[in-house]
Design brief:
Blueprint: E1 12-13, E2 25-29, E3 44-48, H1 55-62, H2 64-71, E4 74-79, H3 103-119, E5 126-131, H4 133-144, E6 151-155, H5 166-173, H6 181-189, E7 200-206, H7 215-228, E8 236-240, E9 243-249, E10 255-262, E11 269-271, E12 286-288, H8 293-300
Parallel strand pairs: 3-4, 3-5, 5-6, 6-7, 7-10, 11-12
Antiparallel strand pairs: 1-2, 2-4, 8-9, 9-10
């Protein structure tokens, strides 16, 4: 359990996790009811904070550790160091931090392996989510280590390798330029030698996001459509907690991609703090909009059943 007396800090430092070429920190949250046995080991969710945030602040705002207590989920929180980025942003656009077995992605991969070994994680139930730069780094991890993840959720993020330097990153964040659809597809396929089955993808974005234009959400969907062989319009569109949800199903009827564009929401993670199913707490970039992305993402992954 955490040694800090701060009631907001529910995380424990992960002191050792193999080599750390990206020079990142790591924290975990393992609930008391986490299942660890030879019959059915528990799942792991990797959570990546956004710029100007910490692992602790993102956990407090998003409510992931609250849900972990409820559903028996292990959590891993990689954390950026200010020495790597003055605004604590994951370096998703740098060549050295966006390739398999290099930089920040390799550090995160080693963290995952350590937690899997330490807590007997079910290797078929490892997931990743992130906000903003953390969302863009989730894109990196899903593309470079697709064999590791059963699913991923990208919140206010960007497609994998949509930018290769800071200037391009700033342009993509504003919705300008970017790879063609065929290039988006090939970037994922060329990021590893993996050939499936691919992780499912959940995409969340604010309809009024002025920091990362929501055109990036559609680009993320298109990046994964051909990989999942679900080109074209969504299989269905439905309303969930007042927000539209688009769903793409494969030939077996399995939901493989979902997209939420939250009308009127700016840049941040959608939360619903109140009510019986509320999670988290409103804060900067943790936006109270009446729908908990944390709960719905976990439901999409089959973790709340």
């Amino acid at each position: 359990m955490p040694t800090s007396l701060d009631s907001h800090n529910r995380l424990t430092d992960l002191e050792e996790f193999g080599t750390d070429p990206g020079s990142l920190q790591a924290h975990t949250y393992i609930p008391k009811k986490f299942p660890k046995n030879f019959v059915k080991n528990g799942p792991l969710v990797v959570v990546l904070h956004g710029s100007t945030q910490s692992a602790e602040s993102y956990d407090h705002g998003s409510g992931w550790s609250e849900l972990a207590d409820e559903c028996g989920i292990a959590l891993l929180y990689p954390e950026q160091r200010i020495t790597n980025s003055p605004i604590s942003s994951f370096n998703w656009f740098k060549s050295s931090d966006s390739r398999r077995d290099e930089g920040e992605p390799l550090s995160i991969r080693h963290m995952i392996k350590q937690v899997v070994d330490d807590y007997g994680i079910d290797p078929d139930r490892i997931f990743i989510t992130g906000l903003s730069s953390g969302g863009a780094m989730a894109s990196v991890m899903l593309a470079t280590y697709p064999e590791v993840f059963a699913g991923g959720a990208i919140i206010a993020g960007l497609p994998y390798r949509s930018a290769d330097n800071l200037m391009e990153a700033m342009a993509r964040m504003q919705g300008y330029g970017g790879p063609s659809d065929s290039k988006l597809d090939s970037l994922v396929r060329e990021a590893s030698t993996f050939r499936g089955p691919w992780p499912t993808i959940s995409v969340w974005h604010g309809g009024s996001d002025s920091t990362v234009d929501n055109a990036n959400a559609d680009s993320i969907v298109r990046q994964w459509q051909r990989v999942h062989k679900v080109d074209g319009p969504p299989t269905r569109v439905e309303e969930v907690s007042g927000s539209p949800r688009q769903v793409w199903c494969n030939d077996d009827g399995r939901e493989v991609i979902e997209e939420y564009i939250i009308d009127g929401m700016g840049h941040g993670t959608p939360i619903m703090a109140g009510g019986d199913e509320g999670l988290g707490e409103e804060d900067k970039y943790m936006l109270e909009v009446g729908i908990s992305s944390t709960r719905h993402i976990a439901n999409f992954w089959g973790l709340t059943k």
